[in-house]
TrEMBL record:
Superkingdom, natural source: Eukaryota
Domain named Fructose-1-6-bisphosphatase class I N-terminal: residues: 39-217
Name this polypeptide is given: fructose-bisphosphatase
Enzyme Commission (EC) number: 3.1.3.11
Domain Fructose-1-6-bisphosphatase class 1 C-terminal: 221-344
Length: 357
């Protein structure tokens, strides 16, 4: 049997979780893969994967330039605004919302694209938080983009509250309460990487069948990498501790006696995916990334793979969100690299001159 990405789903999961061709799809893995996620979560993920395939096709379409933010902004203020093409991230948001509504399993969706969470249904089990299309500002240059999402249980103890209030409070759960999270990378391949609390697993879209195939079961981030991912152009705005760390590791004078290399795509999902595969650290030291939609879901994934997510001082998943669009510094990566980075102390950038790019 051939392997995908260096793995064989059959050998890792056993024949009971594999299809007739020996490969294991996402739905087969969740349904018969030896993990007890429950039927409700299987149904929810069937709709999430459907949404991601629609977004993948949209991103790859030769006609998506008409949906760019720049083109949309050019028509702002005209009488035809209502009929103007919508930016890709807005369309992606609508695709995800429709899929979650159709699943019949989601009580509330909170999205980076919406000012407030949207209450969908009463008496159903899940809350979904999402960044529908991360990295969309660079899509015209064909830079990889992604969708990030996290899944919580609905807080039934809040059911008596007014709809708006319970929608917000359900969306502001601590990352320790996540029951699943994932991202979809739209690149040379479309990869859905997810965790249900028992490891982190990667599924690659087979365009010939429309199935997400298990290609990277049980991902383990290396305890150390040799790559750091950060915008080096901001070096002189960084605090002294972060500058010392970067100076040290790229000279090979850190605890790992090899010179580190910089790799920076400026697309969070892409930078994180590479870090998960090869190890090292991906970071944005400014109060820039969102705790609810980005930091919590990705920190859950990296921890399930044996790494660490931090704001530079404390574990991301231990933080209690207080605002829906709360921003913070984010550091994700290999456990030993993260411990060394945090040991420098002063790594959160508080100076922000107001960057244009």
């Amino acid at each position: 049997m051939a392997s995908l990405g260096g793995f064989t789903a059959k050998s890792k999961m056993g024949t009971s979780a594999s299809g007739d061709n020996g490969f294991c799809t996402l739905m087969e893995y969740m349904g018969r893969g030896g993990i007890d996620v429950g039927d409700d979560l299987v149904v929810l993920f069937s709709h999430i994967q459907y949404a991601s395939k629609r977004i993948a096709a949209l991103v790859a379409s030769p006609f998506n330039s008409s949906l760019s933010k720049q083109d949309n902004a050019a028509g702002a203020g005209s009488s035809s605004d209502r009929d103007a093409p919508k930016p890709l991230d807005i369309v992606s948001n609508e695709i995800i919302l429709a899929s979650l509504q159709n699943s019949g399993k989601v009580a509330v969706m909170a999205s980076e694209e919406d000012d407030a969470p949207i209450w969908i249904d009463d008496g159903v089990p899940f809350v979904v938080v999402t960044d529908p299309l991360d990295g969309s500002r660079n899509i015209d240059a064909s830079i990889p983009t992604g969708t990030i999402f996290g899944v919580y249980k609905r807080l039934v103890e809040l059911d008596h509250l007014p709809q708006e209030e319970k929608a917000i409070l359900n969306s502001l759960q601590s990352g320790t309460r996540l029951v699943a999270s994932g991202y979809v990378l739209y690149s040379s391949a479309t990869i859905l990487c997810a965790s249900f609390g028992s490891g982190t697993h990667g599924f690659t879209l087979d365009h010939s069948t429309g199935d997400f195939i298990l290609t990277h079961p049980g991902i383990k981030i290396p305890p150390r990498g040799q790559i750091y991912s950060v915008n080096d152009a901001r070096y002189f705005d960084w605090p002294e501790g972060l500058r010392r760390y970067i100076d040290t590791v790229r000279q090979g004078k850190g605890k790992y006696p090899k010179k580190y290399s910089a790799r920076y795509i400026c697309s969070l999902v892409a930078d994180f995916h590479r870090t998960l595969m090869y190890g090292g650290v991906a970071m944005n030291p400014r109060d820039h990334l969102r705790l609810v939609y980005e930091a919590n879901p990705l920190s859950y994934l990296v921890e399930q793979a044996g790494g660490r997510g931090s704001d530079g001082k404390v574990r991301i998943l231990s933080l209690q969100p207080v605002k829906l669009h709360q921003r913070l510094p984010l550091f994700l990566g290999s456990l030993e690299d993260m411990e060394e980075l945090e040991s420098y102390g002063d790594i959160q950038q508080k100076v922000n001159p107001g960057y244009e790019v």
